[in-house]
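Researcher: Let's try something more involved. This one mixes different molecule types, so please make sure each is placed in the same coordinate frame as the others.
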Amino acid sequence: VSVTKRQITVSVDRLRRRRPTDVPAPRRLPADERSCPRCQSHYRAEEMRRNKRVCATCGHHFAVGARERIEQLAEGGAWQELWPELRASDPLQFVDLEPYPDRVERAERGGRTEALLVAELELRGHRCVAAVMDFSFLGGSMGAVVGEKLARACERCVDRGLPLVVVTASGGARMQEGVLALMQMAKTVVAFELMHDAELPVVVVLAHPTTGGVWASFASLGDVTYAEPGALIAFSGPRVIEQTTRERLPDDFGRAETQLAKGQVDDVVDRRELAGRIAKVLGILERPTGLAPPPAVTWAQARAERAASVAKGLPDQARRLVARVRRPEDEDEAP
Amino acid sequence: MSVAARRGGRFVRRLAHRLTGAPETDSAIWDTIQLARHQDRPYPLDYIARLFPDFEELRGDRLFGDDPAIVAGIGRGVDGPVAVIGHQKGRDTSERTYRNFGMPGPEGYRKAMRVMALADKMDLPVITLIDTPGAFPGAGAEERGQGGAIARSMQTMLRLRVPSIAAVIGEGSSGGALALGVADRVIMLENATYSVISPEGGSAILWRDATKARQAAAAFQPTSANCYRWGIADAVVPEPSGGAHRDHDEAARLLGAYLSRALRDLRALSAAERRRLRRDRYRRIGAYREVAAGDLTAMAAGRTDAASSNGGAGPS
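Model: All components are placed in one shared frame. Result:
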């Protein structure tokens, strides 16, 4: 058995914590003041907000809470939170190192109600529903509330003919809700199917980190998918992979830039340009006013109608197309 | 349960007791996990050999390669031709390595999707047999789009026009299992487990200690009885006394009996009805609280000034 030398890596945080005692401790930063982990530039709370939590010197993207993210997308415009009354429950009476309700209560104390915030807003003149995840609420994990809110968000989009903008930041399914959390993956895919049938666009923005069951469900199913610089995007995180396969992973494993090169995202977009890029896409994909399908019309109906109008006055081939499009099972679909 | 109860004969009383009796003890849950992983337990190819003797395996995803962790193909059983897709673990060391312990990469799920498309075209019911510790965690799998493959496999199953049945026959863990598990009917064998993550994985994440698998198993309670109570499994299929590994023929007979019955029920519905019910099935899953409108204190406290002044201004 050959023994290979492993590189020793020490987290910068740990080095800082174990500062020799004769060196004076650094001035404690007041709450909300942050210094950039990459270039040490220092920002006051107000500057951080104004810079959209991006380091003005090196472009490092800090984490953004859900409310602040919505404000960034609305750019000072009006927005309304939807379904804030939905809260986590504890169907398994789950206890790991502490009971699940205690974890939820502690997370709620910060003013957040769940790992997903849904709001209706106008993004540079485009009315849309935005569903934004908050990594600081139990690691942005997807439990029943996240699934339910996302399902309702899509249903509202279909009702009103609105596009959906999703910003993800999640460790994956919420372990504490067990197999019920796993099923939320399927629930969110069902929700996106409604958007598909209603022919409404879905823009997904992958923020740091988007992993596990969230990446393996709705986060992968956007019509247009952007990633924030440096965001980790993976089904299995690097730690799990290194433990399982003993592979030594490169530092850029699963990062947004790598995923762009591997064809998994459409572009890596700086947060300061994000609203503009989303607005551009919505502008292209938006239906002209007045032509949006009425909410009750299903995709199959619309398809049949379109085919019928195309076929009017056209030769046999097109009529056969209509006959094929109007399969009996499609007729059943009318609500 | 009702279907299984009518079909299972002498195994039913024990199973009924399990489903309706007191919650299982922690050690009973751990025993079930050992049974679900028993190396002599029938794997998809064992069931296929008994239920679909003329099975033709189809290989490759037509994009990159073939993944032996998933077997897929077509065959004719007592209910006519079907497509069968399952996680295959492997029984001895060399086969386990070849099958990657039943942990598929994206090629496996893309092969599954390809066979589902064939089934949809040729009007063959899709039967999936789930038995995996999870999708494979590897750098190559990630680069080739593991997450997207799982998501699209679920999407493909949701769009099927043909009837579909997913049976958890061993351990069903994480998105790697659910990728093949979005069906009209989801059933579990008596000693199968279904969970958000394997006990070992959960132990490493929640306890930060790989040795707490027993505690994790007790916390996840991934047994068939619990999944039936939570509405994750539509039915629990009894196993021969002592577990499916004791008698593969009998295990296959019991599973086959349920599949025939469920296929007959599903064929009575139209494609559109099946799809609507399939969607509803997943739309409904999930337990949450709704706090009263006056009790949004936590939320109100966290609002910034800008947000609360905007709060009423948006659309209702």
